[in-house]
Amino acid sequence: MTEADLAHLSDPGMRMLASLGWLQRMPAQTVFLREGDPADSAYVILTGRVKVFASDPNGGEIVLNICGPGECIGDMALDGGPRSASVMTLDRVNCSVVPRDSLRQAVTEHPDFAMRLITTLIRRNRMATSKIKGLALQGVRERVHVLLLGLAVERDGVQMVGERLSQTEIAQRVGASRDMVARVFKELQAEGAIRMEGRQILLRTAAT
Fold this sequence. Notes:
By secondary structure, the protein is of the alpha+beta class. The chain has helices spanning 12-18, 100-109, 111-137, 140-151, 167-174, 178-190; strands at 22-26, 31-33, 41-47, 50-55, 61-67, 72-73, 86-89, 93-99, 152-155, 158-161, 194-197, 200-203.
């Protein structure tokens, strides 16, 4: 791993961890971790984005997280158990593959890094709990609403979803079918809650 490979990492702890691994380059749309496989390494993303997802035997999929440069995935390899989710590249991705023994060494020898890793795992657990509550207690319309509001940014005085997401991608994130999401979008547009400019979603009023 060279300094040039680590150039996109501003966090000292992530730079330290990434330096313990070897460089792997992957094209977009590559599934490189699979749910249930042995967890023998962690991955520090250097460039590009990945999605963390779970799927069922019928091809259903729910996106658990989107991660980018400076984030570590597969860090649950610390316990040596099976992978709890699958991971696919969304862009061309460069990452550092850190063996489990090196990850354990970093946690043991660098207390500040260990605390950061623990904090990250807690945050992800809270996110997972929130998603589970949403799936269990909220309807599709509410889940779409929460997602759009969570992704909203203001540009030139207009609230819009920062990511350009297809209805299929939204369905995967909220745990619903694409047809159901399409019906929710039609309702929200008819009510004036949102409007579309190509794939850009503009939030005109609160989508309740």
